[in-house]
Design goal:
The structure holds 2 protein chains of 2 kinds. Chain A is α+β, with helices and mostly antiparallel strands. In chain A, about 30% of the residues lie in helices and about 25% in strands. A 3-stranded antiparallel β-sheet of chain A has the order 3-5-4. Chain B is built from 17 helices and 21 strands. The chains are: A alpha+beta, B alpha+beta.
Amino acid sequence: MSYALRDHTADVAVEATGETLDSVFGAVADGMAAAMAESTPADGDRFSLAITAEGREQLLFDYLDELIYERDIRGVLPVENRATVSAPSESEGAADGGGLISQTPVTRVLDENPGSSAGDETVPRDIVPSRRSVTPGDSETYSGVPGGR
Amino acid sequence: MTTYDADGITLERVREYVWEIPREGDMRVPARVLASEELLDEISEDKTLQQLKNATHLPGVRNHAICMPDGHQGYGFPVGGVAGIDAEDGCISPGAIGYDINCGVRMMTTPLTYDDVRGREEELVDTLFANIPAGLGGGGVYEGSKADVEEILERGVEWALAEGFALPPDLDYCEDEGRRTDADPSRVSRKAKDRGRNQVGSLGSGNHFLEVQRVTDVYRDDVAREFGLEADRIVVLVHCGSRGLGHQVCTDYLREIEQTHAGMIDRLPDRELAAAPAGSQLAEDYYGAMCAAINFAWVNRQLVMHRAREVIAKLFDLDTGEMELLYDVAHNIGKKEVHEVDGEERELYVHRKGATRAFPAGRPELPAAYRDVGQPVIIPGSMGAGSYVLRGGANSMDVSFGSTAHGAGRLMSRTQAKQEFWGGDVRDDLRDHQQVYVKAESGATVAEEAPGVYKDVDEVVRVSDALGIGDRVARTFPVCNIKG
């Protein structure tokens, strides 16, 4: 299982190879993380998610889409991804016309870029105080610091 | 007849800077490229021309599918592509609008001159960087609730004004006064809203940035005066879009179209052109969601600009009202507009992906202040090169559905740029040799965006001016740049 970042006119492409579909999926996800950050902290927590789609290509698309979603809402960068891709069981396949499921435990790592400076203390960071308005009852919490970084 | 052969695709010269790929096979209309031969050499290097040809297969496409002078390969539809597609019997294609819905640029004028800023660049760039969120992931000027996101999607910059993030004239100098009334927030998924919630007022990553610039050249004195631009004047340019929210809207609808209109997609040469037929429920839903994402992006740029305005006011002891929005332009957008097709007025979904609306003087859509001179068009350049302010040219409605270019395309891929450059060196060189101060979240981003990785924007603007679709008004050069 391996990936390489490839040239693309406007963006960056990920090429991934693996012995099995499982390892290819994991490698594509790892490549996507590599395209987003130069390096990652060594520790983190694993979490899992499940995706169902109507076909193999669509499953990969939806899987990556879900990882990006996790990144944005929880401030995590999924790395060291392991995917398990399975075809639906006979009965499910007959019932809904087919689907593929990817169960993916991924490492949760805080989305911090080690290359960024922590900020110079002399800089008036609070020149315009950030405003925060979270409706009581919202259960989600964000790891982002108000004001941006 | 003069022709240009580009690896299997032959273009016929219609007149200076206008090239046509004649209709053949399943092409519904011819394709046109607006470029000099020099630019055509660059455009023909990747799949841009094939993608442009593919776009002429979309049902209801009218007149021509058009490639702007800065066109390059995109996903399915070229970046720098414009297609006017019939809103009655055509279709709407999310891929022809782009993932970053309403990615765009705005420029704010200030009363400062370059002399006022010289010697204080480090302080300015550090303070802007500390106060304006940039980079991947979360954190914005405003961290809102679910209800806030709904309001932003519905009301656009009117929300920002009500919340104290705008001055009243800011609304006048934005397309549609900063509010797309066709927006339907109920058509935007929960996932998209979740992603938008903590990104309101943030630059993001990639080629997005905020730049303090000085005006270096003025080409049309009378128009520049109307725009408040003169040599040595300090201006602020903001380039960003709808962040994760817009990306999710595009993703959601591409997937839904794929599932609902598979038959139509099978008849297209590239599935990334996936489109919803005009009049279908999905077309209506996507249009409502896309317009809501447009509002979100306007609010995003507004909050970034307003924060910069407050920072500059404090540092230079100015009143915020002394800094005015010149104009806000979108360069990834789809809009219902009326254009002439075969001598008849038709309502079209005008898809502009990496292309900027450039309406000429006299158009009722323009704010009163610009109705006699034409719409300001802002074309950002790379860090070591200038940006341009144009005005919508007299020929734009006939030539390009009222559009012109949006910037310079990449010359070198991101991966290659990171091999060639080291962010720290690029930053030091810019400071020592060009007096440009750069501060970024990531050194890799500086390398990816190094001067030299982009094509020359001068030639793009020269061709736009010569075609009369976007006339050169002024050129600016960076002083400070912050990015993700």
